[in-house]
Amino acid sequence: MADEKKKPIFRKINATGPCKKIMADHFYELDEAAKSGSRKIAWCTSVGPAELLRAMGFLVYFPENHGAILGATRVALDTIPIANAAGYSPEICSYLTSDVGAYMKGETPLSLAYEGITEVPKPDVLVYNTNQCRDVKDWFMWYSRELDVPCIGIESFCNIEISREPHIAAVSRQLQDLVPALEKISGEKFDLDRFKEVVGLSRRCSDLWEETLQMGAAVPSPLTFFDSTILMGPAVVARGTQEANDFYELLIPELKQRVKDGVAAVDGEKHRIYWDGMPIWGKLRDLSTTFLSLQTCVVASTYCNSWVFSDLDPANPFDSMAKAYTDLFIVRSDSAKEEYILEMAKIFKIDGFLFHDAKTCPSNSNNRYGMPERLAAKFGVPSVTIAGDLNDLRLYSEEQSITQIEAFVEQLGEK
Amino acid sequence: MADKLYVGVDVGSSATKVVIVNGKGTVLGKALEQSGMDFVAASKTALERAVNDAGASIDDVAHITSSGYGRKNVEFANDTKTEIACHARGAYQHFREAMTIVDIGGQDNKIIKIGADGNRLDFKMNRKCAAGTGAFLEEIARRMNVDMSEMDALARKSEEIVTISSFCTVFAATEILSLIRQGAQTRDIAKGAFRSVVKRVIEMDSLAGKAVATGGVVSHNPIVLELMAESIGHEVLTPPEPQFSGALGAALYAVDEARQ
How much is the ipTM here? Predict the structure, then answer.
């Protein structure tokens, strides 16, 4: 008799199919290049200088994307302990530990999804930007030692209010300094016009992705945070290509039609929540179902917004890249972050904030310095913080978290 | 014609509590069973006993709301509510004013803030581990070979302050072995364990304003109320039978639900 509720309806977005194809093409192209040696491969941190690498002829592979796949498939649970045993603490980034552990084990979930792919594509160069955290560099340095591949990158700033000229100059200079090393590895001369073209494509991708996310401001929202974690794939792995832009040109009209027809991603949407922090990759489906059954839509998130780089300017590619990748949310001070989230709360008309305190990702856990309390007081809506992790489900208590979410939604309903 | 009965079932990690009220919210009966491994069986037995306690018949039950850790296992319930909602509701039934409720349960702790009209303003749960919960106290009692039911009386005989500083229940148990080796008395360790529970609770959130404690731990160990009051500098109240507070809240929600 308990919980005799209607089974929640998952409204599939039709463009998910083309999205999957872009991801498949991405991995097959890399796999072919790794096997044949036809193209040089650069590994890049997710908000690293992908545009520069692409412009210099590299195929670009993003280990963090692989980390997310390890999490979503829960393969991470078997691979994290291997890295832990090799001296990489369970307290550090679980993307790092799950990915390094998977490599040590000789396993990749790509082989389950893509027939014929048996391993991740070996890099010719590893290129990082520490704008997210130090862990990405430590991660790439492991591979550099293991595979004897050069590891180069950008040392970024952290905790800044907003980038000023000295910040941009320093990062821009570091970007330019990468060019000679990359030329040597790729065997291709740097071509400024090609670089401008890629930055232009990437900017367009950013604009389209932003427009996609803005759809969530409609009431009811045509998409959820959980949809966005899948739909963001092309903006992450294929920004700077026409294919990524074509995908969003296809997706946006579908979402616009939903808005026009009043089609809700969450049937009977009663509450709207902002998600701050990393996704819990291994529990996306469960959490999505929980929110659906509670008629609550997670309409916006800091995480998905992090692939919006509105400062990219093809006319001034180095400096604008430096600015775009330094004014990222994650690089900013708490006061700047707070202002940003407040703005999002207004735009997306949210009823509550959910903070995910990811044990192994302090840089993406914004609850730790009193922000939920400050935001709740300023915006006048409540917040809840759930403890978990992006990939390490040993750090996630499902029973407790679901109770917290249900209690939070009950509280919103009692207002 | 007999009163219609409205039932709240609170399946906690340690005990299952049932409270039966009439349409006016007056308590007619109650029962407590150990939750054990079979939540369904425990809740059924507790329900039967509570119905007997009310001197009523199961046929008079109009609505059942389940709550607590095992709320979704109560297959005979009409609906569910979280324990956070139910503890708030149960405590507000006794103290009809703004307050901060501290519920110390077997496996988790909650701090719930409610406004003057009983609306929930905020809540916090302990993080994943069992620090500061009933499970922590049970582990410490087991380590000292003391029955949990004797811990309160034992702690009251304490003459020296012993501090248990570890967050982690397992490490705290190791800390206790070390204290025993150093010659600490069990009575002092027992009080140290209760102090540790209080510390874990007060670091979850501020207990400013009226503070009310509920749950099995304070029900069986009122020393926790005293230590908490000492620590926060003002009185900590408790409703009658604080262990049944969540089940009472669930029963009151059952009345509301049946009316809708």
Answer: 0.87
